[in-house]
């Protein structure tokens, strides 16, 4: 019997058993099934199979309601989830915009871009700006940095002396910032915690050391750590806790004696999930430093280190045994450390916590970039581990290195030295891996057939051995010259993606749906720079963006100069960009538009 002739009750039973992508594909197959992707009851059941996705998160944070409005929200959230995944995998963003041209330091965390502006005159003061992307429309809050410092408990602050101020982390309406001012005889370093909801400073904490400082928080607790404790003559990580409800610090700090590594995001990472703070390192305290790969002194196997810190008044630290954290063998070849990336992520369906490490390995005279996933299983009780537990077994864990055929879904092979689309490290300023979509997402510097002499930053997504570049070079793809309208749009996108013709480095941050980057020059170090945001989330809304279906605008810089004139009264007009959620259906973009159009 055809599915089209099945009773609606049977069709609904089939639909609720599908995953989000399969349900979306079913709706595209026939007009008879278009309703399934808008049926709130079906979408709620299917969305609950991705309860750890960012689209389902708002439903967990609020009380469940079964009214008609709530039902429609489930359907909209499901469509957003599928379109976000497809946009990443197809390298087709929904928004490209330049947030600011006057930023000095910036971070991106939990859906908010936080950056500081430089004080260049009495009119252009030193501000901390927080652009929250969530909600009906993106909104920006501006805070005077000098007033913030003066309102804190920072002692002996001198406005005439140079000082350093930068944001560290943002979550749940709490912004944490680092401040230091060099004074005789020493340096005053402070951690300033500010609540946007209450419009007040929660704490100003004097720091003994700020080496590799990081901050993580939820709505109840805030944790900050630094690599500042001397243990047997070597620096180790320590973590302190702040109770946001009681506005008090826990007197005792936690010292992680076995946690090594200093480069957050490359060799070490920290994240909050549920009621625990997790930390992972790709190095071991027992590893020998400066040992050449393949030498007799090099260890035969490499292991991760992972810990779990319980949140609350009585924190406890659990370390996973070494035999559960096998990383790689010496026969896997040497590693190009410049490409190393380390992150923790949750499976959107099960919530399973995993390590995701991206590295480029050299073997048999060619290199290959891969992302390895290592699942972390935390039993209710752990046995004490020795320094060398190779000969022991812990709860069924096996130290035997897996074979290539046994890796299965735990490894994602990227491009290698034989690919024509391979980019070297210098031309790959932004490198990332999206675990939610299982895709490498990079910003690369490349030339096009229409602009063979000018390098352009382009979005590159190698997925399933097929590399997609955006923006697409129409002249190279189909051999025809672009129309004048297409040339204007290409010029506008070029200006958005390439705010700086020459740069020394790029700072970047990303999550499941957004990439934020900022090209910078090393000299002078505090030169104002642009922040570029590329969004794959169709649910985001920005005021004042141009639409690709409209007439191409004049040069973006002419608009920015006009918006920054004294006559311009709207502070939000500094943001300029392009809304690609409703593209004209050209032959090249027909598939993308039909499958990733912004939800109504």
Automatic annotation (TrEMBL):
Region (Disordered): 581-600
Pfam families named in the record: F-box-like
Coiled coil: none
Superkingdom of the organism of origin: Eukaryota
InterPro entries attached to this UniProt entry: F-box-like_dom_sf, F-box_dom
Segments forming domain F-box: 1-50
Protein's UniProt name: F-box domain-containing protein
Source organism of this protein record: Hypocrea jecorina (strain ATCC 56765 / BCRC 32924 / NRRL 11460 / Rut C-30)
């Amino acid at each position: 019997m055809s599915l089209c002739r099945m009773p609606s009750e049977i069709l609904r039973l089939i639909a609720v058993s599908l995953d989000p992508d399969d349900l979306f594909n079913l709706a595209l197959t026939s007009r008879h099934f278009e309703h399934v992707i808008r049926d709130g009851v079906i979408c709620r059941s299917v969305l609950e199979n991705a309860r750890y996705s960012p689209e389902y998160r708002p439903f967990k944070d609020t009380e469940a309601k079964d009214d008609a409005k709530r039902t429609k929200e489930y359907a909209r959230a499901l469509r957003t989830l599928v379109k976000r995944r497809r946009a990443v995998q197809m390298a087709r963003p929904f928004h490209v915009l330049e947030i600011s041209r006057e930023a000095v330091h910036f971070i991106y965390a939990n859906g908010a871009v936080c950056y500081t502006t430089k004080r260049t005159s009495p009119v252009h003061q030193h501000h901390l700006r927080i652009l929250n992307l969530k909600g009906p429309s993106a909104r920006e809050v501006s805070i005077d940095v000098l007033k913030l410092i003066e309102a804190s408990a920072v002692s002996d602050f001198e406005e005439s002396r140079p000082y350093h101020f930068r944001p560290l982390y943002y979550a749940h309406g709490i912004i944490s910032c680092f401040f230091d001012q060099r004074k005789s005889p020493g340096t005053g370093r402070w951690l300033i915690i500010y609540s946007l909801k209450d419009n007040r400073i929660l704490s100003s904490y004097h720091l003994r050391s700020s080496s590799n400082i990081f901050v993580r928080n939820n709505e109840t607790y805030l944790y900050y750590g630094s690599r500042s404790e001397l243990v047997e003559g070597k620096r180790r990580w320590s973590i302190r806790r702040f109770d946001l409800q009681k506005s008090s610090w826990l007197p005792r700090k936690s010292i992680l004696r076995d946690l090594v590594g200093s480069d957050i995001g490359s060799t070490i990472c920290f994240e909050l999930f549920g009621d625990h703070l997790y930390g992972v390192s790709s190095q071991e305290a027992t590893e020998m430093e400066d040992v050449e790969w393949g030498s007799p002194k090099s260890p035969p196997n490499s292991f991760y280190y992972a810990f779990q810190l319980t949140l609350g008044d009585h924190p406890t630290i659990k370390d996973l045994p070494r035999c559960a954290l096998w990383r790689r063998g010496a026969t896997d070849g040497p590693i190009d450390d410049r490409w190393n990336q380390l992150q923790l992520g949750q499976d959107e369906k099960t919530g399973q916590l995993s390590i995701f490490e991206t590295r480029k390995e050299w073997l048999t005279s060619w290199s290959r970039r891969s992302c390895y996933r290592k699942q972390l299983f935390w039993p209710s009780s752990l046995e004490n581990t020795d320094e060398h537990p190779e000969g022991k077994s812990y709860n069924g864990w096996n130290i035997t290195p897996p074979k290539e055929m046994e890796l299965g879904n735990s490894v994602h092979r990227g491009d290698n030295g034989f690919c024509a689309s391979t980019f070297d490290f210098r031309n790959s300023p932004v490198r990332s891996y999206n675990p939610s979509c299982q895709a490498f997402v990079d910003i690369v510097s490349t030339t096009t057939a229409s602009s063979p002499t000018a390098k352009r930053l382009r979005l590159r997504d190698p997925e399933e051995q097929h590399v997609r570049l955006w923006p697409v070079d129409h002249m190279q793809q189909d051999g025809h010259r672009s129309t004048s309208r297409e040339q204007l749009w290409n010029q506008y996108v070029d200006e958005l993606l390439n705010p700086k013709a020459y740069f020394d480095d790029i700072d970047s941050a990303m999550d499941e749906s957004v990439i934020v980057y900022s090209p910078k020059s090393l000299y002078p170090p505090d030169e104002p720079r642009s922040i570029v945001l590329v969004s794959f989330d169709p649910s985001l809304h920005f005021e004042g963006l141009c639409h690709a279906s409209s007439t191409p605008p004049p040069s973006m810089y002419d608009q920015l100069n006009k918006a920054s004139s004294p006559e311009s009264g709207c502070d939000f007009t500094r943001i300029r960009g392009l809304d690609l959620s409703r593209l004209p259906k050209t032959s090249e973009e027909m598939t993308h538009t039909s499958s990733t159009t912004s939800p109504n």
